[in-house]
Amino acid sequence: MMEEKLKINNVKEGYRQRRFRWLTVTLLLALLTLVLCVSLLLFGNTRYPLDTVIRVLLGEQVQGATFAIGTLRLPRMLSGLLVGIAFGMAGSTFQTILRNPLASPDVIGITAGSSVGAMICILVLKLSGTVVSIVAVISGLLVASLIYALSKIGSFSGGKLILVGIGIQAMLNAVISFLLLRASQYDVPAAYRWLSGSLNGMQMANIPSLLIVLVVFGSIVILLGRHLKILELGEQSAITLGVKTDLVRLLLVLSAVFLIAFATSVTGPIAFVAFLAGPIATKLVGTGAPNEFPAGLVGAILVLGADLIGQFAFNTRFPVGVITGILGAPYLLILLIRMNQRGGSV
Amino acid sequence: MKTSKIILLLSVSLLGLSLCILASLAFGARFISFNEVIDILIHSRRTTINEIVVHERIPRTVFGIMAGAALGVSGALMQAITRNPIADPSILGVNTGASLFVVGGIAFFRISTPGEYILFASIGAAITAVFVYGIGSMGQGGATPIKLALAGAATSAALSSLVSAIILPRTDVMNAVRFWQVGSISGATWEGIVTVLPFLIVGVVLGLLSTPALDALAMGDDIATGLGVRTGVVRLVGALAGVLLCGATTALAGPIGFVGLMVPHTMRLICGPNLRWVIPMSAIGGAILLILSDVLGRLIGSPSELEAGIVTAFIGAPILIIIAMRSKVRAL
Lengths: 346, 332
Fold this sequence. Notes:
The structure holds two protein chains of two kinds.
Chain A: H1 2-42, H2 50-57, H3 65-97, H4 110-124, H5 130-152, H6 158-182, H7 188-195, H8 207-223, H9 225-231, H10 235-240, H11 245-267, H12 273-285, H13 292-312, H14 320-342
Chain B: H1 3-26, H2 34-43, H3 49-82, H4 94-109, H5 114-136, H6 145-167, H7 171-180, H8 190-217, H9 221-226, H10 231-253, H11 259-271, H12 275-300, H13 308-326
Helix pairs in contact in B: 1-3, 1-12, 3-8, 3-10, 3-11, 3-12, 4-5, 4-6, 5-6, 5-10, 8-10, 11-12, 12-13
């Protein structure tokens, strides 16, 4: 009797500790995000003191600062923040569903699907704004469902889905190269910039729709996160525990695709954010804890931090995606090596 | 295989290749009838427009044969060495590695001659291939198709951001790279062909020399060692040949994917797993596929044309997907 009680107490204690760790980590991540947000408003061609920034944010007209902060820096920072959260959450959702840290949307072709839609709009139809977003979301969804449908023939397996996705991605990349080749020389730098993911030229008009998408689909992802953890135990265990696996998976995949496609349509595919956020968040909060929200924060930190580096660390201003790509590469390699050494489920 | 079957297979495929060559000379923005093409080739005059057009199409056709054959053999070698059905330059990320080195060469060392392109592309291809294969084969079960594909895709993604970092501040390089990044054989010149030929010959000879040993390797490392094969040396020579072939081709044509994936697969279905036949047949099959893709691109894209690399991606990616769907889940 005593022993059993002790065991239960141990379990409770462990639960409390994990809960505490999760809260601390999440708070710290949120704090770091806030610091990055503020510094993106402070720094630029001209440095403004904190009180000027606050006055501008409160709606006061300040000579010069209102334009620089309100029109240039604020939309840039906000879209970086929202897009980062969206990439992070969507990426970690995919990685959990497919039970493979490498299976993020940018590796298995879904980001490429949105990119193709957006490139056609920008280069061929010369469209911009909301239409591009809608087309990018639709093409991302179409590609995702195509990959899913193809990998469902026979029996579904995560491995099959990844291989099919890589095949589809190869085709989509051919389409993108083709579009670039046919584009007029004048459009090419802009297209390249978009393709590598950039926060340049963000406008306040993009923010509300991005925010709505993030709130709606982000909350679905967070709410279903509990089921996601059970899905991670494997298909059979999840069914035994009463999770409607097909429905949960469908809802989660749909939300993740919406998040990723919408974010991609605004900034272009920012390399490796979706890929890195999940594993980093898991490392911080510990395995087993819900990591969708922390992953979103990590995504935001990656995007905002990389934008700071890209803007100010070099002589040339690099788009944020180039920085995340280069910073992400070594981590990716370490991850690949570790995962393969462990043998894992790959 | 029986001798009669070999003779039949060889004659059918060579006949197919000649038809493709004829088609490559005949089709395009201006159609010239087969009879006229043959007539022009025999008399080799260059006065009328038709005669000039046919002669203009000869270098790209010759280069198409060479590049296709090289890619086919390279794929067959890589698949044999890695014992992996999806080993292909485009999946292993080798094309992106070659791209990175060529782009870096254009930007930092001002390379411009075909010879320099080949050197840079081959080095990039070799480093990437070794790297991806090394990572993909760590851990349990060695290099399974899925581990290899993921390692290749992830490495490709990392390398492409490096490519972007190099070209974004340099608009001039951007334009040079834009045309090179889509694989195409339309820009072939006699100068380029002459430069690339020695590399291809060395690659093919090395590949053919290592065939018997690679066949032994197919039975497993232990048995191969028992048969007196030095497995390490064989793998190295075979890999060198494979990388040389695809690196040299990529240098001139740009990244052309999936030829090395599709052709050896088809050839194994037709003539069995014996590399003694698979490798030569892959050469012929690769040439047929690439020239056919090029002709198809000219027909679909007319009055302009669609690059061969885009056509092969569209034919090849579905094949990869079919392979993925047919392979047993366990094997992944």
